Amino acid sequence: MTSLARPSSPISRVFEHRFVQYRRTFRASIFSSFISPMMFLTAMGIGLGGYVTNDAALGGVPYLAFLAPGLLAATAMQSATFEATFPIMGGLVWSKVFHAMYATPISPRDIALGNLAWITVRLTMISTIFSVVIVIFGAAESPLIVLAIPAAVLTGLAFAGPIAAFAATQKTPNKFAAIFRFGITPLFLFSGTFFPIGSLPVVLQGLAWLTPLFHGVALTRGLSLGTIMDDPIATAIHVIYLVTLATVGAHLMIRNFDRRLIR
Amino acid sequence: MSELPAPSLIHARGLTKRFGGFTAVDAIDFDVAPGESFGFLGPNGAGKTSTMRMIGCVSPVTNGLLTVMGMDPAKQGPLIRARLGVVPQLDTLDVELTVRENLSIYGRYFGLSRAEVSRRADELLDFAQLTERADDQVEPLSGGMKRRLTIARSLINEPTVLLLDEPTTGLDPQARHLLWDRLYRLKQRGVTLVLTTHYMDEAEQLCDRLVVMDKAKIVAEGSPRALIEQYSTREVTELRFAPGIAETLDGQLDGLAERIEHLPDRVLLYADDGESVVAAAHARGLQPEAVLVRRSSLEDVFLRLTGRSLIE
Ligand SMILES: Nc1ncnc2c1ncn2[C@@H]1O[C@H](COP(=O)(O)OP(=O)(O)O)[C@@H](O)[C@H]1O
Ligand SMILES: [Mg+2]
């Protein structure tokens, strides 16, 4: 992974392509990265949160403080999923720019890793802006909120790798809608973002434990509330789970880029 | 690597490509010399693109020997690709970026510095006659402009060999002639061109030497002129008859030409002197609706070799 940092490496050239693409829309993108968390925290954290009085189940903090880090992790998941679907299909099928890259000294592996590097940077931008908004809303209980940024990025990468690996096997975007409808939206609603999973029926609690977003939310929330070391073993499990998923996903992504481009 | 002088820039023996059980390229042999302009002529599905992709080191060789600039595509793919220019059959431009951005980012893929890329981009924009569109998005450009941009892009690394897969397919005649002119200039500069086409006029215009491919195999090889001399006559007389008449001609054309081909809509008579064929046909009392005497082309060579016309 040291090659990631070398400025002239093929991976950085793939990254540069994504950056040049992004440059066209970055103002609008930065703007919506601010606006969207502000709207969510105002409506759900302050508006809806005003009616939430059972603070005990939330760990004795205001609903806004409980919700905000959950939304941070969920936003990272959604952004990662978007970045891992349509732009990947674009490069392989629509504009075919990944084929153009492979005609040069760049390899399919470089293309996969360059895209992952870009997604990492995008997630860092989005998560940083989100965390700043959390602090502005007074919803961070601990200075450890700073570490919620890498935790959210890790959560996103746990989705980006596997989903990009899947996207690289597709010839049309038809199944992407199903990922959002049957994957991302249920996770968003039932992985502890809006309420503790203890409120769910026991069977669903077990299911929630298996989802990567649950582990991501546990980390960002533990950091934002400053409770992360209350249960060090659980924290370690969250990190290991997400790192494993991100690593396996990256390997599958490289394998599928190889299969798709080398034929 | 041995230091023996490479006899040819591209060297293939028994080169084979299979997709599962299907053989797309079947044990073909060819050599491309430095500075040469070499063509693969054949109908759709002949295996031209599959061959080009193997040369371009993006498709593994199934069987046989292939060296490109003396190197082995299986082991030195990135090194070879660094010195190739590739114009794929279908455009792979980033249509959301501008013309200049497409050139410069492609140069960056080769590890060129930003300053160098920018200098070369200016030159290539001029070469491709796209300077005025430099800062426009690619999406709305015409097919011919996109193709010129793809060719300009393929030159950004100053390649030793330029691979062009059907460079003018789908373009109108004016756009094709402009492209031919640009390719001719490259040839004059000593760039080795390897191209595929199913247009015989393109092959005759651009290729010093070509192979005719059909059904995964090479069926003939030579210069356009030599192939025409070997497999055809100097001139061809085309006769069109009114509907229903052609079937009643049985034997009436015999002996008028060296060879006669019956196509669905016309009859082709191969003889060095076309006018005397026309005269002889009239003398026999035949009354074709239309008569055309033309020079023989690679189309005739292909028909002779395969019994089919090149573009179905
Ligand atoms: N990736 C592939 N998988 C399976 N079959 C393929 C693949 N690429 C090409 N073919 C088949 O190989 C044959 C030759 O194709 P191609 O090399 O594209 O021919 P050409 O460029 O002369 O039209 C065709 O029958 C085509 O369907
Ligand atoms: Mg082809």
Write the layout of secondary structure elements.
The complex is a heterodimer of chains A (263) and B (312).
Chain A: H1 10-23, H2 26-47, H3 63-94, H4 97-102, H5 108-136, H6 145-167, H7 176-190, H8 202-210, H9 212-225, H10 232-261
Helix pairs in contact in A: 1-5, 2-3, 2-5, 3-5, 3-6, 3-7, 3-9, 5-6, 5-10, 6-9, 6-10, 9-10
Chain B: E1 10-19, E2 22-32, E3 37-41, H1 48-55, E4 63-68, H2 73-81, E5 84-87, H3 99-109, H4 114-127, H5 143-154, E6 161-165, H6 173-188, E7 192-197, H7 200-206, E8 209-214, E9 217-222, H8 224-231, E10 235-240, E11 259-262, E12 267-271, H9 274-283, E13 290-295, H10 298-306
Describe it for me?
The complex is a heterodimer of chains A (263) and B (312). By secondary structure, chain A is mainly alpha-helical. Chain A contains 10 helices and no strands. In chain A, helix 3 packs across helix 9 and helix 5 (108-136) packs antiparallel against helix 10 (232-261). Chain A is globular. Chain B has 312 residues and is of the alpha/beta class. Chain B has 2 domains: 10-228, Rossmann fold (3-Layer(aba) Sandwich), CATH 3.40.50; 233-295, 2-Layer Sandwich (Alpha-Beta Plaits), CATH 3.30.70. In chain B, 33% of the residues lie in helices and 26% in strands. In chain B, helix 3 (99-109) packs across helix 4 (114-127), helix 3 (99-109) packs parallel to helix 5 (143-154) and helix 8 packs across helix 10 (298-306). The longest helix of chain B has 16 residues, at 173-188. The chains are: A mainly alpha (263), B alpha/beta (312). Chain A binds chain B through residues 8, 10, 13, 16-17, 20-21, 24, 95-97, 99-107, 261-263, and chain B through 19, 56, 58-60, 77-79, 81-82, 84, 86, 88, 90-97, 101, 105-106, 108-111, 157. Bound molecules: adenosine-5'-diphosphate and magnesium ion. Adenosine-5'-diphosphate (ADP) binds at residues 19, 22, 24, 42, 44-50 of chain B. The site of magnesium ion (MG) has 5 residues of chain B, from helix 1.
